[in-house]
Amino acid sequence: MLYNYSQKKILILGMGLTGISCINFFLKKGVTPKIIDESKKPYYLKKLPKNIQYKLGNLDKKWILESDLIIISPGISSFKPILIEAKLSGIEIISDIELFARETKNPIISITGTNGKSTVSTMVKDIAKNSGYKVCLGGNIGFPALDMLKEKADLYILELSSFQLENIFTLKSKIAVVLNITPDHLDRYPGGFEQYKKIKLSIYKNSKICLFNLKENFKENNLYFQNKNKKCITFGTFKSDYNIKYKKNYAYLYYKNQKIMNTKNTSLRSNQNYENALVSFAISDNMNFNRKIVINTLSKYVSLPHRFQIVHKKNNIYWINDSKSTNINSTKTALTNINTQGTIRLLLGGDKKCANFEELKKYLKKLKVKIYCFGKDGMKIEKIYQKNSIYTKKLEDAINLISKEVTSGDIVLLSPGCSSKDQFKNFEERGNLFIKLSKEIG
Fold first, then answer.
1. 3-class DSSP assignment, residue 81
2. Last residue of a domain, which of 279, 299, 319?
3. Tens digits of residue pLDDT in 8-36
4. Domain interval for residue 365
5. Count of domains for the chain
6. Could you tell me which of 227, 186, 188 has the C-alpha nearest to residue 206?
7. Average pLDDT, integer, range 198-216
8. Is position 271 annotated as part of the catalytic site?
9. What is the pTM of this model?
10. Which of 27, 57, 69, 281 has the highest CB neighbour count under 10 A?
């Protein structure tokens, strides 16, 4: 289906990289949109072409309600009252991913999940590239989706957040996977966890092959699996098509009863990464990639920065940067991957996004741990763990305290369980500060 935008009044919400990619997309089609950003000083204002009308500071009601088509950036909630009003009045609201999906017929692998989606996406990209594909990765990582259209690719991999999935309607993935779903971004969704979960599962709507985690137990309640033309493949439990047998410091990956890989001679060293590799295998098998190439690629795979990354070791003290931990479940995962007789000095804090940090208590009871809370919600988190915690305003203040208390055998773990946006531009900036300070102290 060809989409004609020439007669439409088009408005873009958000002036980040996504918004700028939308501007360029429409200009190439000979259409001049308008754009709004809620910030009074958006970072990418200087990238805006001179002929584009824009407004800053708030979502202008007049511009919104006189539009025919609104493209919403993932950082802006679809549930704002003015946007609900616009939908009810018949105005079409979509994401940049929806625009992208309308423009290509090339195969798409779509990957989402609360945790692990960046790792799986990059694993699959490396495998596809080594298999001879011209592959492009974008969405929530790498390129904005629309910028991928400029690349000569014969396969697209989309890493998708729940924010992006809110306004996607025609995406037809060759393979779609939801890695896991645990409570996150509950401040965004009026309907709470069930609404967040439903949005995540919508990735399966038009997909040909569905990979789903049997541990999550969401197949039975998911209408998207009832189409007989879909191929459904499972992972996550011993009964799954793809499963894992764990050893002390490594694991065997299986397809049904067939051993397909031993992780012993790889740099993969956590249960989360074993499962990420397993899903990458499942995707690769269904893309008919050669298994020898898959094994060789995964054997050489190096974990992405800011994901349980040992950044410094001195005097038998390990400093681990897990800044990508932006929800409680990722902090739980980090804690389960630690084995030490010393004290775990855990850095928690930032914007907790309405998450319930009481859930961490049962994990922490089993460990020798001291918690250093910081940031916007650090004081609230500190009150939950009063006996073994302390509050500081900033991350650097917490690390300064740690430097005076840490001893041989300890592990300093930055796994905040919170968004970084209260004090940092992103989780990378937070992680880089941790790296810098750990090396200065060590």
1. helix
2. 299
3. 999 999 999 999 999 999 999 999 999 99
4. 309-441
5. 3
6. 227
7. 93
8. no
9. 0.90
10. 281
